[in-house]
Amino acid sequence: MTDKTTNDIETLVRQLGAADAGQRAEAAERLCRAGTAAISAAVPLVRACGDADDPTREWAAAALEELGPPAAEAIGPLVELAQSDHSLVAYWAITLLGRSGQAAASAVDVLARCLSAADLSVAQRAAWALGKLGPAAAASRAALGVAAQAADPRLARLAAEALDAVGP
Amino acid sequence: MAYGLAGLSPAQAQQLPAGPAVKPWDAVLVASFNIQVFGESKMAKQQVVEVLARVVRKFDIVAIQEVRSKSDEVIPSFVRAVNADGSQYHYVIGPREGRTVSKEQYTFIYDTRRIEVDASSLGVVPNPGGALHRPPMHARFRTRIQPAEMAFTFWLVDIHTDPDEVPQELQALVGAFQQMQALRPDEDDVILLGDLNAGPPEFSALKRIPGIGWAVSGVTTNTRRSKTYDNLIFTQPQTSEYTGQWGVLDLQNTFGLPLEKALEVSDHNPVWAAFYPAEHRGQAAGFMAAQPTTVK
User: Helix, strand, coil proportions of chain A in percent (round to 5)?
Assistant: First the structure.
C-alpha cells in the first residue's frame, strides 16, 4: 500500500466522524470502493454500522463484506464492539472476529455470551465465529452445547457445527 | 462443466446492441448484474445512472442484486431513466431480505417488447433451516419474439450469496435449484444467476445436479478483474436453448471508464448469456462448440 493510499484511508476515517451525514456517507462509500486497501479502517467501519444515517450504514456494511480478516491490533476493539447494543455493529464485529480465526482467541468469552443475544443474527454469527476459531474456542463448549439445543434451527445447526470444529 | 468457452473480447463486447431496436431477432440476452449498494446515493449520481441505464438497454432481461434502500422509489426511478430513450422496460422486485437490519432486494428488469413475465410466478425460494442469507427470488419469463406456443419460457432464479458462508450456501442452492426444477411440470428451464461469491473451481456441490453447467468460465467478473464471482447456471439437456454465447461486459472497456469511475458504478461487471427465443422441447442435447463467438 502506498503512503498516499494510507493517507487517503486516514482522511476518510476522520470523515466518517463528520457532523454532516452526507460527508459520512461519502467517506463510507469511498472506503467501500477502496476494497481490501481499507483494512486499516475495519474498526471505524464497524462503528459506522451504528450510524443514524441509512446510506452511511449501508456503505459501511458493504465495505466490511469485502474486507477480509482484520489486523491483529483490531481484535481488542472488535471484542468491545461485539458487545454493542446496536445489532449491526455487534454482527460485523463478530464477523470480523470469525474471519480472524484462532488469532481472535481472546474473544472467546465474549462470543460465547453473544450466543444468547436477543438478536438472532448476532447469536447465529457468534456460533459461526466460534466455529471459525476452531480448537482455540474450546472454552465455549458448554455455551455452544446449549445453543445447539436452541429452538432456532439455524442457530442450533451453526452451534453444532462449531462444536465439531472446536473438537473434544 | 462450463458451457462454451467463448468470452467476448472488449472490442466484441462493445458490439453488443446499443438499444432495443438493434437487438438480435434470433436470441434473447439474459444478464446478471450486482449493482453494489444500489440505493439513493447511487441514483443521485447522474453519470452513474446513465452508465447503468446503458448497461440494461443492452440486454433483454437483467437480474440485479444488491438493491439496498428503505425507499421503494429507487427501481421505479431507475427504470424511468432506462426508458428515457424510448425503451420500454419494466421490472419486478422481491421483498427485502437479509438476517440483519441491512436488507437487500432482488429485481428483474426486462424489455417488454421482447419479454413478458408471468405475474403469478414471482416468489422466493423456500429456505429451510435458514441456510441462505438472502433466499433467491424467482420469476418465470417468456420471449415475445416468437408466437406464444413456440416461445422459450424459463425460470430465472436471482441469488447473492453471503461471502462468509459460501460453501454452505452453494450446498443449499442445490436444493433450491431442484425445487425450482420440480415447481412446474411444464417448465424444464431453470437459470440460476447472480453473484455467487465463488467461481467454477468452487462449484463442486453444484455438480450433484444432473447435467449442471455454467456460462462464465476462465475470465474475471469483478470490476477489479481479480475474481470470477458472477455466473449463469443451468442444466443440459433441459436448457438446450442456450446458444453458447456468453460474455462479461467490462465496465472500464465498454464505457471508457478508469477503474475508480467504474467502481462508482459497481464492483461487479455484468455477465450475460444468449438463448434461442423458441423452445427446443424434445430436441437432443449438446454442448456448444468451444470457439469464440460474437453477438451481432
Answer: 80, 0, 20
In a domain, B35, yes or no: yes
User: Are the beta carbons of A124 and B163 separated by less than 8 Å?
Assistant: no
* A99 vs B contacts (CB less than 8 Å): 164
On whether any CB of chain A is under 8 Å from the CB of B71, the answer is no
Q: Which residue range(s) make up the domain with B134?
A: 10-275
Grid cell in block for residue B127: 429456505
CA–CA dist B189, B155 (Å, integer): 6
ipTM of the complex: 0.93
Judge whether B101 is closer than 8 Å to chain A, CB to CB: yes
- Asked, for residue B280, whether it belongs to a domain, the answer is no
Cβ separation of A95 and B36 shorter than 8 Å?
A: no
CATH number for the domain spanning B42: value is 3.60.10.10
CA nearest B68 in A: which residue? A58
Looking at the structure of chain B, the number of domains it has is: 1
Q: Is B130 on the interface with A (CB under 8 A)?
A: yes
Q: Do B263 and A99 touch (CB under 8 A)?
A: no
Residue A2 CB: number of other CB atoms within 10 A?
Answer: 8
Within a domain: B220 = yes
- Which one, of A64, A37, A48, lies nearest residue A125 by Cα? A64
Residue B91 host element (H or E): strand B89-93
The verdict on a CB contact (< 8 Å) between B101 and A95 is: no
Closest residue by Cα to residue B282 from B243, B237, B244: B237
CA B283 – CA B286 distance, rounded (Å): 9
| Mean pLDDT across B237-248 | 94
Residue B258 at interface with chain A, using a CB cutoff of 8 Å: no
- Contact of A33 with B36, CB cutoff 8 Å: no
Q: Quick check: B270 and B222 in contact, CB under 8 A?
A: no
pLDDT, tens digit (0-9, with 9 covering 90-100), for B100-158:
999 999 999 999 999 999 999 999 999 988 999 999 999 999 999 989 999 999 999 99
Q: Is residue B135 part of a domain?
A: yes
Mean pLDDT throughout B222-243?
95
Nearest CA in chain B to A99: B164
Cβ of B163 and A66 within 8 Å?
A: yes
